[in-house]
Amino acid sequence: MSAPVAKRVFLLDTNVLFGFSWWLPINLNSIFWDKLGAALKNGDWVLLDVVAGEVIYDPELRNWCDQQQQSQLVTAIDGTHRNRGIAINNQYQIIDQVSQKSTVDTYLIAYAEANNLVVFSQERFRRDVSKPYKIPDVCKILKIDRISDPLEFLTAIGYQN
């Protein structure tokens, strides 16, 4: 008898939430967003506090994230994840030293590594080695499972229209 296949749990990058919000606006696609919230409640994916905190300029998505927070469905990173994120950045510079962009990416990777989660990010591999690393680069190096295909995520969480 074969061993049961472990459930894949996903950790979403902020760009995925923005992408869903762009293509499936909350006010026009409440069914999708309700199902996404249900999948979060079921433990199919994790919404980190630092990811939700990056949602500033999209009022509807900010409101949706706030609702998840009020429902206690947003997961807070802790000092261990912050320290590991710093160590990851020290080894593979992710944070842009000028703009300080991508700070959250280090914590996302650290949390995924610690909890054996699949990172879902729309970022592409870096093309210029003089530029900071990207999520796909570091996930590959650290052997953290990563996807970029929304269909793969939606299928995995059982989304059907």
Give a concise summary:
The protein is built from 8 helices and 5 strands. With 161 residues, the protein is α/β, with parallel strands linked by helices.
What does it look like?
- The structure is a single chain.
- This protein is of the alpha/beta class and 161 residues long.
- The chain has one domain: Rossmann fold, CATH 3.40.50.
- It is built from eight helices and five strands.
- A five-stranded parallel β-sheet has the order 3-2-1-4-5.
- Helix 5 packs across helix 6 and helix 6 packs parallel to helix 7.
- The radius of gyration is 16 Å and the shape is globular.
- 31% of the residues are buried.
Which tags fit this structure?
single chain, about 160 residues, alpha/beta, Rossmann fold, 5 strands
List the helices and strands and how they pair.
Elements: E1 10-12, H1 14-23, H2 30-41, E2 45-48, H3 49-53, H4 59-70, E3 74-75, H5 79-91, H6 103-115, E4 118-120, H7 135-142, E5 146-147, H8 150-156
Parallel strand pairs: 1-2, 1-4, 2-3, 4-5
